[in-house]
Amino acid sequence: MILDRTISTIIEQALSEDIGVGDITTEALIPPEATAVAVVLAKQDLVLAGLDVGRAVFRRLDPDIEFFPYVLEGTRINSGTEIARVSGKTRGLLSGERVALNLLQQMSGIATLTALFVEKIKGFNVELLDTRKTHPGLRQLEKYAVQVGGGRNHRFGLYDGVLIKDNHIRAAGSITKAVALARKRAHHLFKIEVETKTLDEVREALFVQADIIMLDNMTTDMMGEAVKLVNHEALVEASGNVKLDTIRAIAETGVDFISCGSLTHSAPAADISMKIRG
C-alpha cells in the first residue's frame, strides 16, 4: 500500500486525538530509555489488511521502532495467529497501540466481510463493488481494504464518475433531461450511469444510451427482466438490499456488477490485540 499524504494525515489526526498533549499513564510508568518486544495477534479468523498503516503509526511516534510482519497483506489467517512483531522504545509501543490496532481492526474487518461476499458469488461473471458509504475521513483506507478482500472500487468521490441518482432525476425533471445535461458537462471519457427503480426507467435510460444502468432495490425477478431488456446494450449494476443471504440470487440474474454499502459502513471490526512479550 502506498502511504500518501492523505493516509499520513489520517494517522496524524488519529494520534493527536488519542494522545493529545501526552500519554500521561505511559509517561508516568515507563522510563524513556526502556525497550520492549510486543506481538500483534489475531483473535478471530480474518483477512488481514492494513499492515503498512499499522507500521506507519508506530514509526510516526518513533522512527526506530521495528515492525516485522509474520504474514502477508491479504492473507486469510486463523484465530491465534501472530501477525507481527513490534520492538523498540516501550513508550512508543504503548502510545501507538490503540491507534494502530483501531486501523488494523477496521481495515481487516472490511477485508474479511468483503471476502465473504466475494465467496458467495464465486463462479458468476459479476464483480462486487463498494460505495461511497464510508466513514468520514477513512475512505481511502476502507476502499483499499475492499480491494484486499477481493472486491472492486466504485467511484471514489463525486468528482470521478457521473452517477445520476433519483434525486438528480427529480431535480432535473427526467432521466432524459438529466443525461443530456450531464453529457454537456462531463468529460468525453466519463461513462454515465443512471439509477433506475422501474422497468420504464430502464427503458428510458436505454433510450438515452446510458453507459451503465443501476437497478436500485428491485426484486430479483425484476432484475432478471431488466437484464433481458438491456440485452448487453449497457452494463448493469444491482444495488440495494445486498446481503450475504441475497447476493447469490442477485448474481444469478445476470447483472454485471453488484454494489454493496455494507462492505464499509457495517463491517464489524476484526478482533486484533497487541501483547508485550518482553
Number of strands: 12
What's the tally of helices? 11
- Assign the CATH architecture of the largest domain: Alpha-Beta Barrel
Query: Major β-sheet, in short?
Result: 6 strands, parallel
Average pLDDT number: 97
Q: Low-confidence runs (pLDDT<50, min 5 residues)?
A: none
CATH topology of the largest domain: TIM Barrel
Helical content band: 40-55%
Report the structural category. Answer: alpha/beta
Shape: elongated
Order of helices and strands: HHEEHEEEHEHEHHEHEHEHEHE
Over all CA atoms, what is the radius of gyration? 23 Å
How many separate structural domains?
2
Approximate strand percentage: 15-25%
Give a topology summary:
Layout: H1 5-19, H2 24-29, E1 35-42, E2 46-47, H3 51-61, E3 66-69, E4 76-77, E5 82-89, H4 90-120, E6 127-129, H5 139-148, E7 162-164, H6 166-172, H7 175-185, E8 192-196, H8 199-207, E9 212-216, H9 220-230, E10 235-239, H10 247-251, E11 257-259, H11 262-265, E12 272-276
Parallel strand pairs: 6-11, 7-8, 8-9, 9-10, 10-11
Antiparallel strand pairs: 1-5, 1-12, 2-4, 3-5
Task: Tell me what you see in this structure.
This protein has 278 residues and is α/β, with parallel strands linked by helices. It has helices at residues 5-19, 24-29, 51-61, 90-120, 139-148, 166-172, 175-185, 199-207, 220-230, 247-251, 262-265; strands at 35-42, 46-47, 66-69, 76-77, 82-89, 127-129, 162-164, 192-196, 212-216, 235-239, 257-259, 272-276. The strands form three sheets. Strands 6-11-10-9-8-7 form a six-stranded parallel beta sheet. The protein has a four-stranded antiparallel beta sheet with strand order 3-5-1-12, with helices on one face. A two-stranded antiparallel ribbon has the order 2-4. The chain is elongated, with a radius of gyration of 23 Å.
